[in-house]
Structure formats: C-alpha cells, structure tokens
Amino acid sequence: MRSPAKRITIQHVEPNSPRSAPLDELCRRRTISCGDQGREKFNQISSQIAFGADVLRLIAGSGRSGTTWLLDALAEANGLRPVFEPLHTDTSSVGRKFGHAYLTRNSNCAELKAMLSAAAEGALNTIWTDYRMKPGRLRIGLKHFRSPAELRVLMHKWRELAHRYAAGRGKKTRCATIVKCIRANLMLDWIHSSIDARIVLLMRHPGAAVESRLRFAAHWDPFPLLKKYRNDTALMSGPINRQAARMNRAMTRTEALTAIWCIENLVPAAQAASNGYLVTFYEELLERPETEWPRVAQGLGLAEVPSATILHRPSQQAATRLHRGSAIGESYVKDYGSWNARLANDDLAQVDAILREFGVDFYTVAEARPNIEAFSLRFLEG
Prior knowledge:
Blueprint: E1 6-13, H1 23-26, E2 27-34, H2 38-51, E3 56-61, H3 67-78, E4 81-84, H4 93-98, H5 110-121, H6 127-131, H7 143-146, H8 148-168, E5 177-181, H9 188-194, E6 197-203, H10 206-215, H11 222-230, H12 233-237, H13 244-247, H14 253-275, E7 278-281, H15 282-287, H16 289-299, H17 308-312, E8 321-323, E9 331-333, H18 339-342, H19 345-357, H20 372-379
Parallel strand pairs: 3-5, 3-6, 4-5, 6-7
Antiparallel strand pairs: 1-2, 8-9
Helix pairs in contact: 9-14, 10-14, 11-14, 14-19
C-alpha cells in the first residue's frame, strides 16, 4: 500500500535576485507532492528551480585540488547528477580541441558551448562522464589472450566498471546536474559570458597539489601542458605577460607543476570579481565548514550543504582523519598540511621560488592555510 503523499514547500529564486540575501526572503512559494522519497525529490526540484534546470553549475580547479570531493559531496547532498570531466582530452574530440584552452569572452566556440550546454541539461551521456572509466581501457585485444596478466588487468577493469555502474546508475535519473572540470580554468571568462552558468573556483595550496602530482607522476607529466601554455600567444601576451620571459627557461618537474598551478589559478582569480563567480579554498572548507560550505552552496544556487557523513566518504583524494567540534556535526578532515613533510627541501625551495616569480603571496610554503586577507586585497578589492 502506498504511503500518503507528503506536501513539501519549495522556494523559487528569481534569476536576478541578489544572492547575498537569505533564500527565504528572495522566494515565492510553490508546493509539490512527493512520496516516500520526498526529501531527495525536494533537493532535486529546489536545485532545478533555484537557477533553472539547465543552468551550468560548474566546479573548476587545478588537478589534485579537491574538485572531485567537492563535486560528489554537493551532488549527494542536493540530489544532483554529477558530470565528471567532460573536457578530458582522452575521451572526446571537444576535449582534445578545447581542454586547458585560454578563451576570452569574444572567442567563438560553438562546439564547446554545445557540449557544456548538454552537460548542464543532462543530455551528455558517456561512460567517462557518468562512470569515470575511459572506454579505451575496456577494449579487448589479442594481447589479453596471449598474456594471463593482461587478461587479469582487463577483467579487473570490467569489474571496476560494473561496480561504478551499480553505484552511479541511480544518479543518472536525477534531472539537475553539477559539473566539475580541471581543464576549464582558463575559459571561465568565456563560460560566464556565453552560458547561463554558476561557477565556483576551488583552490588548494600549490605545495599540496604539486606533492600529490609528484606522487602520481605517471598520470601528471607537466611538460606537454607547459608547452601548450608557452605556445599560446594570447595567454603569454595577456594575463601572463610579466612572467612570459621566465616561462621559457628550462624547468624541473616541480617547477613546471608549480608554474602550471600559478597560471591555472591566478588567471581565473583575477576574473572572479568582474564575472561574479565564487572562489573558495580547500583548506577553508575543512577548517571553517560552518561558513564556507553554505557560501559555496549559495553560490551554486543549492539548498543543502553536505553532512559530515557525506564529507567522510573518500573520492580520489587522500585518506581522512577525524576532526571534532564542527557546528555542522563531526567533520572528517584531511591532514592538509602533511604535504610539507613529504616534499624534499629542494622541491620546497623550487615551489617557493616559482610562487615568488608569479607574485603569489596568499599561499607560502611556510603556511598550510591561505592568507585570505592577502588574496582579497589582490583580487577582490583592487
């Protein structure tokens, strides 16, 4: 026997309403009927209505900065369909053409706009964006029948896909989406002017991001990307013109990774105030969850912040440790300063030198947390 429908009131936010005001002061009330899954449906529908079902909610950030964690936590809390890395250069022709591209608001990119619009509307359906598995790794070839070891690897990949399919198929039915991309940092100005988008730029300490990429060196060769940036005349003559000459000198892997972090974070940070998108810091989400998570949720037009249980679930990042005393419950917080002990002194010195060359003063190798005042003075109040 079906349980009686529950009456749930949701709030409709006018698209041009000031986002700084409390949501209940901005909204006119609508009422819908839901069954036993009322709370999840409420989250889904309120997320659709807040800025429209097809708005692009985008989490941008450099690799190894916590973007997957942020994506999964917000998607789970708000009943959204997560769309994973649509611009990966190995999984789509659009990604190969536009991944990591520097675009200005005058750029003409019809293919890219179509893909991101499809992602926002829930019309982008690929094994990669839905289940985070590259199709090429699933192809069966003669080598798998000639080598038992190769066959075992292939079977493991298919079992992994089956597990991810079982875990993610329910999320595909959700109407509203949230997208995360580590290859879109240099096109946020274009996205903001070309698509109905709500954007959050997530930053993490460059030392932490570099250390993580060094540990997973097989997946993070910085030199092809550094070459791409060096050869981009518009980028080098525009926002990076002061560092262009120094960018052309030979660099170690650590220096190259740090320079890439600087480019991918300083360029969009300088555009944030004029474009009205939000910048948040990985370390602040952990240290000040009571204020930072609601700020991020509001910036994306979402009704809910993740619970401590959701935040405890690992994504692709390191293991977590328990931190007590949070106003939103027990928060599971990573030891986010441990990268300093894992980097060699030479690496620390190289990170520090590149940060100084780029004029980064809101992150230093001596401090694990960002200097919010220094960041605000440079990017938000200038």
